[in-house]
Structure of Sterol desaturase family protein:
Amino acid sequence: MTDLLLTEFGQMAKAVLDPNSRLFAGYLLGALLIGLLVTATQFGLRGQQGAVRQLFNRKIWLHRSARLDYQLYVINRLIRALLWAPIVLTMVPIALGISDALESVFGYQPPVTQNSVIVISAFTLILFLFDDFTRFLLHWMMHKIPFLWHFHKVHHSALVLTPMTVYRSHPVESFLYATRMAIAQGFAVGISYYFFGTALSMFDILGANALVFAFNMLGSNLRHSHVKWRWGKLEKWFISPVQHQIHHSTNPKHFDKNFGTALAVWDRMFGSLVLSKRAMRLRFGLGRQDAGHHNVVQAYTRPFHDIGTSAIGRFRQNDAPERGTTPVTSHNDPTV
């Protein structure tokens, strides 16, 4: 176990060198440069020093909510390594199952093209689309299914946003997202293998999908930040940092909006897209539901407490409707 923990700590330290991590140094540097430019432009700050002070505001980075983000990042990594990483689904059997299923239904399919550029381009795009849509779908489910919402509330309990807030999650949610990734990649690889054969490869930059790399370099870490970077008309197609900040807003008009990660088209299809506006003031957290998520123990135990409370409420409602209470279904219920 000691070796496993040391390995995990080593992986955390190497995250800044891994383009598949949001903490990759290139992504952080890109966010810093964009943040400096946007902050200096939008707020009229005089000089680089003023922009730096705004970006690294101690009240945000040392806020108790931000400190909990840092703790959860470390502890969740250790929990993953010790408990659920060995049992999470893997991509390979899913890919083989999808490919075999397609062949059994539609018969053998010779490669539709031998052009390597077309194959690589198609495979890169398929991987990206499957990943982005399944992220959107699971995120949507996290809000719409009461049982899952109790776990996702840990993420939405953040009172300030920093790039580390992306790692503010309950281990149950982390497990579901890891499973989602295996399923998404398995489907993408299985379908691509059926149509293009074994010669599969993607456009990558330092080992990361080129489209994902580009998205992360273009300020993905500003999604969880206080930098208000709007993308204008592009927000109908791509989720801007401000649009994700709107998703965290305590304003009832913003509840259950902007679930997307990179593409905004899924939100347009589901009717949950909200565009940003100038001078938009946002507050973050759970509002009137903001209770019991302010330290590590509460973050891990509160979801189970809330699930139990909801179950008891449903039991009492069925037993005595006139005295029952309606359980929470999402944070768009302001009565909790």
DSSP finds 13 helices and two strands in the chain.
